[in-house]
Specification:
Shape: globular
Strand order of the largest sheet: 2-1-3
Structural class: alpha/beta
Distance between the termini: 22 Å
Strand content: 15-25%
Length: 115
């Protein structure tokens, strides 16, 4: 398979823990890295997007204005063949960061379902 033909995976990592180097261990990030290793065996190029590291404004539009970093994330999502929602579970629900990402994907709902 040529490099240009490789599948691309994007992991939306919704851990609430800050950078691993800061001493906070994230089970969700570790699990994501394990899945990435498995995907690598199948020649899939992967990228983890740590949502906690971005300023993602609340809302349901693709661009919520000045300082919103979601539009850059959307470009990576649309360029991917595989999208993984990697979230811890708190009280039976996904993390607040994952909920925000889901809400921000609302405007792309139909486009994503067609691909």
């Amino acid at each position: 398979m040529k490099v240009a033909d490789r599948l691309k995976a994007v992991f939306l990592l919704a851990t609430l823990k800050h950078k691993r180097g800061g001493g906070e261990f994230s089970h969700t990030e570790t699990l994501s890295e394990l899945v990435i290793e498995c995907l690598r065996d199948h020649d899939v190029k992967s990228e983890i997007i740590r949502l906690v590291d971005y300023d993602i404004k609340p809302g349901i539009k693709l661009n919520m204005g000045k300082g919103d970093e979601w539009p850059g994330i959307v470009k990576k999502i649309l360029a991917a063949d595989i999208l993984v929602f990697a979230t811890p579970i708190w009280w039976g629900n996904q993390s607040s960061l994952m909920q925000r990402a889901i809400e921000r994907l609302e405007e792309l709902h139909n486009e994503l379902r067609e691909t």
